[in-house]
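User: Watch each token:
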Amino acid sequence: MRSIPIKTTEEIEAMRHAGKILTQTLDLLERSIKAGMSTKELDQMAEDFIRSYKGCTPGFKGYHGFTGAICTSINQEAVHGIPSPDRILEAGDIIGLDCGVYYKGLHTDACRTVAIGVVDHDIRQFMKITRKSLQEGVKQIKPGGHIGDISAAVQTVLERFDYGIVEDCTGHGVGHELHEPPEIMNVGIKGTGPMMEPGMVLAVEPISTMGEGDIKTAPDGWTLYTADGSLSAHFEQTVLVTEDGHEILAG
């Protein structure tokens, strides 16, 4: 089993900068998104903004051949949706905006799910609770805690509201690689798994559904969608383990 990387002070500063740009990118997308836009327009907006900062590049572009700067996952798509000029957003859609910024050899990673115009109350509630599961998971991040503490907190929130959990997709460490140890499941048992130490950087990312948690892969080889056609929501933050707790670097 690979060890969990501990970041140096210089690496943390670089990730802090990349995380700031990533958060601003998601802010821009959330402010700008509207019905009638294509997912390719959003992708270009994100890439242009990221590259406007010296040394920053989109961390996803070219990753294992992925063509976008962001992942755009609409409605029943859980994750890894490919931006396209042919995917036009409609009022009532929800979309996961997953993005990464690469700076000085280091990655950050974050996602938000946003609604296009007005959506039903139960969908708003679903998105709110999925975001809450992320927040509760992040609250567990501190030195001496266990990775399973994060997983258990996410699971508890989502199961309390009877939402499906996409167990095939997990959070992860992040830094020199987009995906580093440890794997952070969205189901788990408190007090289990690797112990957290200062300098670890973790990407916590619950992905939930309004139905069952099973997913399938689309013919494009990237997009994962719910097997039962139910809506999916995805929230993610990049989080540093500090000496006395944690610091959210991106999201």
Remarks:
- The radius of gyration is 17 Å.
- The chain has a mean pLDDT of 97.
